[in-house]
Design a protein that fits this description.
Layout lengths: L1 E8 L5 E13 L2 E6 L4 H20 L5 H7 L4 H10 L4 H7 L2 H14 L4 H18 L9 H13 L4 H20 L29 H12 L9 H14 L3 H6 L5 E2 L6 E4 L10 E4 L2 H11 L15 H11 L16 H12 L4 H8 L4 H8 L4 H7 L9 H14 L1
Antiparallel strand pairs: 1-2, 2-3, 4-5, 5-6
Helix pairs in contact: 5-6, 6-7, 6-8, 7-8, 9-10, 10-12, 10-14, 14-15, 15-16
Length: 410
């Protein structure tokens, strides 16, 4: 181990000496230099601890308790340098690094992989809430039992199971990222499962009838401007949602260049960063809708939003439902909101006899079960009409049953 001050040339070319001492040592056949302190005695003490780390590492042993206590006071930047050299494991550095620092890196990773800033903000915020809820400041503070206990208490206080599942999924995502990055050996929450949210659904949506769809479009077309959108613009937005099944955030991401409106097979494309399944989605649209979109988009900045949607379109469409005389909540407690347009799109496919696999593809669902069970709202009248396909077994059978009944009565 050599302790020295580095010499260099200043900006005028004159020889100068660094203010800090440096350590020079060899480890596994390579020479390394590490900044120490301005005080020589402190730098030499630092060097002796590095020598002990080297000895433990070469012997395949864990650092002794005294070294572990010392590392807890070493700046994270220095620990990162020791990890790169191979003297300290990345897991140990992660254990000594505040979770707030890990979360900042996690946030940047999500942004770098193309997630939208809005999505990233929501994910990171949920992780922060759980960390605060269990009182975790360092990786060692996280346990599966603590997370389960915290979410159970939140559910007891009124948190829906669906929202609780979102917290579970995104907290597990953060922990698995820690493992993939080599910052942790294992995730403490791998065993956590999503709960069945079906019995606890807070919002039960219904699909619009064909008459309601027409009334919504026609009334909105003639309606006044509000929420920065004209009536015709809102009507076209609702038509696009009803004919593609796009979610509000996906619609908000569209620009004029998202549309290919020429030819006999027009399409609209949602980029991967805005798609719920994180891949580019190209959706066909009808020629009649394409013609109206082409007229509407003419002259707009190609890179500007296709629709000037408000941040919360639910209030906007609620006003349009009321104007069209469509009850926002029916007698059964089912509601219509902006997302109900997507429900209506998929239900319309089912009503039209579209093959379930084609409906799944158009809905962009990962499983056919999600398409049919969650969204395909069959009406009682349609089920009743389906019974008409059964053979007629009445006639003489009914006569004999009546005769038999009369004979027994006699």
């Amino acid at each position: 181990m050599r302790v020295f001050k580095m010499q260099y040339g200043d900006r005028h070319g004159r020889p100068a000496v660094a203010r800090k001492y440096y350590l020079e040592f060899r480890f596994r056949g390579r020479t390394h230099r590490l900044a120490a302190f301005k005080d020589r005695a402190a730098s030499e003490a630092f060097g002796r601890r590095i020598d002990r780390l080297i000895a433990h590492r070469l012997a395949g042993e864990q650092p002794d308790p005294a070294l572990v206590r010392w590392m807890q006071d070493v700046p994270v930047k220095t620990l990162d340098r020791l990890a790169k050299i191979g003297l300290v494991s990345r897991e140990r550095v992660a254990a000594l690094k505040p979770l707030a620092d890990h979360l900042a890196d996690f946030r940047q990773t999500l942004l770098d992989q193309g997630d939208t800033a809005r999505h990233v903000k929501a994910v990171v915020r949920r992780v922060e809430i759980v960390l605060d809820g269990i009182g975790a400041e360092f990786w060692r503070d996280i346990t599966g039992a603590a997370v389960e206990r915290y979410l159970a208490q939140r559910r007891a206080d009124g948190l829906s199971i669906q929202t609780s599942n979102h917290y579970t999924t995104q907290f597990k995502q953060f922990c698995m990222w820690m493992v993939r990055e080599g910052r942790a050996a294992t995730s403490p929450v791998t065993h956590l499962k999503r709960l069945n949210a079906a019995p606890d659904r807070r919002v039960i949506r219904r699909a619009l009838t064909l008459d309601e769809q027409r009334r919504l479009i026609e009334t909105t077309m003639e309606g006044v401007s509000w929420w920065n959108m004209t009536g015709p613009a809102r009507a076209l937005l609702y038509r696009l949602a009803l004919e593609t099944g796009f979610r509000a955030n996906e619609l908000r991401s569209l620009t004029p260049v998202s549309f290919d409106l020429d030819g006999t097979e027009p399409t609209v494309t949602v980029q991967a960063a805005y798609s719920k399944r994180r891949r580019q989605d190209v959706q066909p649209i009808s020629v009649r809708l394409a013609a109206d979109l082409k007229a509407y988009l003419a002259g707009r900045d190609p890179l500007s939003p296709a629709f000037d949607m408000p941040a919360a379109p639910a209030k906007m469409i609620k006003a349009d439902y009321v104007a069209a005389g469509i009850p926002v909540k029916d007698a059964s407690g089912r509601v219509v909101d902006f997302h109900a347009l997507r429900h209506t799109f998929i239900t319309s496919l089912a009503r039209g006899g579209v093959h379930p696999k084609v409906a799944q593809d158009l809905a962009r669902h990962s499983t056919i079960t999600l398409t049919m069970d969650r969204y395909a709202h069959s009406l009682i009248e349609e089920r009743r009409r389906a019974l008409d396909a059964l053979p007629d077994l009445s006639g003489k059978v009914d006569e004999k049953m009546a005769t038999g009944s009369a004979s027994r009565t006699a």
